[in-house]
Amino acid sequence: MNARIEKDFDFLTAVYFEKTYMVNLYHMTLYIDILTEEDTEQVVAMERIFYYIQNYIQSSVFINKKEKKQIELFEKAGISTLTLPTDPYDQIIGLILLRKFNAITEGRYNVSEIKLSSKLSADIRFHNVDEEAEEFDEDEWYNDPNLNCKSTNKKTKSTKVVQFNDIEDWNKTGLVWNS
Hints:
27% of the residues lie in helices and 29% in strands.
């Protein structure tokens, strides 16, 4: 049985662009093809998306991975960074998140389309389909099914103002497949 569902999410995340840090409110709709008949796998797949949004996207900052100095400053301040291959435009963010959600659901779901809008882009909605996201097929965090969100695994030693989870795999969350 294949089913198609859609789910809305809102999250608050910053962007760093042109030497400016801006907090942004996003609205996202995911269009999902369910590819497994196992009810428990369907639940785990959706819970993984919820978990990733709440623990890795929410309260982080989207930033171009070339901004190495600024990334290091954010990490020293305890701010989680979500590195992107380009500047953090909503359309790029949508494509990257589509890739990540498909990676973390590991074939149980196919996020075939994502609709993303934000306050900084005057609530203009960007519709992206999975074929468009294929250009971002490099070996990066957004194609990895594990819990990570940046292009570099460099750990910085600092006194953190805000603590973020350092979980790198799903076993510690309990959101694993029954196989």
